[in-house]
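Report of the visiting student (M.T.), summer placement. My assignment was to run the structure pipeline on a short list of targets and document each run. The first record concerns Transferrin receptor protein 1.
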Amino acid sequence: MDHARAAIFNLFGGEPTSYTRFSIARQMDGDNSHVEMKLAADEEEGGEIGRPDHLHASMPPPRRNGKNLCFIIMAAVLLLLIGFLIGYLSYRGRMQRVNRCLDGSGNCEMTPTASYFSDDGTEEEEVPGPRILYWPDLRNMLTAKLSASRLENNLRQREGKNSFEAGKTEDENTARRIHEQFTSFRLDDVWNDEHYVRLQDKGSSNNQVSIIEDGREELLESPDAYVAYSKSGTVTGKPIYVNYGEKEDFQKLRNVGIPMKGTIIVFRAGKITLAEKVANARKEGAVGALMYLDPSNGRKADSYVPFGHAHLGTGDPFTPGFPSFNHTQFPPVESSGLPHIPVQTISRETAAKLFGKMDGEKCPQEWTSGIVGCKVTMSSNMTVKLTVNNIMVDRKILNIFGVIKGFEEPDRYVVIGAQRDSWGPGAAKAGVGTAILLELAQVISDMVKNDDYKPRCSIIFASWSAGEYGAVGATEWLEGYSTTLHAKAFTYINLDTAVLGSRHVKISASPLLYSLLEATMKRVKDPANDSRYLYSRVGSDWIKRVVPLDLDNAAFPFLAYSGIPVVSFGFYDEDDEYFLLGTTMDTLANLKEKTDKLYPLMLTAAEVAGQIALRLTHDHELFLDFDRYSEELLSFQEKLWHFDSHVKALGLTLNWLYFARGDFQRAADALRRDIANSDRENRIVRRALNDRMMKVEYDFLSPYLSPKDTPFRHIFFGKGSHTLQSLLENLEQLAVNKTSVDVNKLKEQLALATWTIKGAANALVGDIWNTDNEI
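After the run finished, the C-alpha cells were exported:
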C-alpha cells in the first residue's frame, strides 16, 4: 500500500496530507458489516500532529493548484471506466453461464449468487442462499418420491404372522422395528410412550353358544374369537332378532309390543359399532347379545367369526378421563360405557341355524338381508345359553413416535397416526396404515434433509397400540397431555383401513378441513384413471356424503375428546364390503384378492395424507376453513325452525340459540377481515391469528361437563345429551308427544348449546375487550 501511495503522489506531483484507514467490523446486533473510516489526522501515533509518522516531518506541504485538480478529475474518470469494463465483463460471463443453464447445455444451479473481489484481487462467489420451495414444487416432489415398492415391502412385514395382539410379542417386535426405522430415517427425535392398561383376553377355554330345548342342550358354536370387555359368566334367554341393533330397530319392536327384557338380542354387523348395539340392547333389559357378520357376495366368509370390543367409549375403561402411565395411582373406578352383560360374536352359519330353530314372527322384508327363514322371536320354550370365559389382564403397551421439527414454530404440529396391533394378521386393519405411516416418515424426512424443505411447524408420526380395544393407545396419550395438546396439535390425520376396496372413497373429517381436502383431491391423480383427478370420482357434492366418525376410529377421540381437527380417508366397495376386517382371515392374500390395485390405492392414500400434512406446515396461514362451522350452525338452525311453536307452548324460546349462531357468524367474518388486513410476514401477528383458528374446534367442546364423566364433549360430534343431535331428537320427540319430554332437561340442553356456541364466538374474536363491539 505504501508503494501505491507513493505512485499516486508522484503522479499528481504532490503528497496527500492524510489518508484513510478502512476497518471492516461485524456489528454486534446483526450479521451486517460496516466500513469504519478513520482519518490519520484524528490519531496521535507519533510524529507531528496531522502527519503520518512514516513521512518526513520537514517536508513542505504540497501546492493545490489547478493542474493537480485536472489530473485528479482525469484519474477519477479513468478509474470509473476501468470499473465499468470489469463489471460488464463479469456480468456478461455470468449471463452466459445462466443462458447455458436455461437452454439445457449446462448443468447449473439456478440459485442466484453474488460475487466480490478478495484482497488478492481474485473473484469469489458467495455461498448460495437456501432453496425456496413453493407449494407446487413441494407437491410434485412428494408425488415423485412416494414409492409403491416400499409400501409393498412395508406391508409384507406382516406376512406369515397369525396375530399382533396388543402388548404381546409380535406387537412389541413390530414396535421395536418401527422405532428402528424412524431412527434410520433421520427423524429429529424418536421416542416411546409406555402405558399400563387393563385389557380383556380369552380364557382358558373358548366361549360357547348353545340352545336348550326340551331339557336338551345343543352346542351351536365355540369360536376362537371373543368380544373384549364383555361380562364373564353364563346367561340364558329367548333369542330376539333386532336387525342392526340401531335405536330405530328397537323402536320398531316396541311399536308392535314385543318385550325384550330378559332376552338375548341377536343382531348383524354394520351401520353402528358393536359397542353401540350392545348399549342399546342393555337399555331394553337384555341379558346377553350375539352378533354375526352380514352376508357377503361370496359364501367364503360365512364361517368367519370377528373379534370386537363392547366398551362404549375409547381408551382404558378402568382409567376413565386420565392416563394410564406407570406412575398413576389407579382409583377403583370404571367407565360407564362398559356393557355389564355377556357378549359374543358368531358366524353367519350359526346365525342361520339359530333362525332355523326360531318359530315366531318373521323378519320384516328389509331386515332379512338374504338369510333364509329369518325370524324375530321365539314362541316355543327354546332358549339360548351364552357362556363367556374372558379374563382381565394387565399389559404394558407402547406408542412409538417420531418427529420432524418445524423451523419456525416447532411447538405446533400435525400428527399422522396409524394403529399397529390386530387380533389376526390385520393386513387391512393395521398393516396398510402402518405401511403408509412409514413411507410418509421416510419421504418427508428425505425432503427436509436432502431437498432443503423447511416446514414451518412440526410433523409427528405416531404408531398406536391397543387400537383393537377402542383406540386405547391414542386415547391414553391424549389424556396424558390433554391440557396442552389442543393448543399445540392443529390436525390429526388417520391412516387406518385406508384400503378396503377400490370403487368408492370414504371420507370422515372435521368441517375445518373440508376446503383443504377438496383442494387436495383436485391435485391427486385417480388410481383407477390416471388421466383424471380424484375429485372427479367423489363429485362436487362429496361433503353431503361425509361419514361421521365412529368410536372404533382412532381419530374420534382427537376430535370429540381433545377438540383437534381430524381427517380419515380411504377406499372401499359399498356393494361388497370387506367383511374379513377383524377376523383371522384379514391376510395380505385376501386383501389383494379383494382389489387388484392395492398398492396404487395405498400410494394415492399416502399422497392425500402427505399433501394435507405438508400444506398445513408450509403456508404462513393455517389452511383451516372456520367459515364451515357457520354453515353447519345455519343448517342446524334450519332444522329447528319446525319446532318453534312446540317450544313456545312450553314457555320457552329458541331465539337465544339463533342469536348465538349469529354471533358466531359475525365473529368468523371479523377473523376473516383481520387475516385479510394483517401483515402476514409478521410472525407475532401470524401466530396470534393462527391461535384463533386453532381454538375453533376446541371451543365446541362443552365447558359445562366433566371430561371424566362425559369425555366426548363436542356438541357436533360427541356423545351425550349435550350434543346438538340429542337436542334435535328431543325436539322431535316433543312434536310427537309433549308429555314424553322432560321440560327441565330440554331447558338445560338449550342453555348448554346456546352458551357453548356463544363461547366459541367470543373465543373467535380474540381479545375480550373487543368482544361486545365485534359481535
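The longest strand covers residues 391-404. Residues 2-125 form one domain. I thank the supervising group for their guidance throughout the placement.
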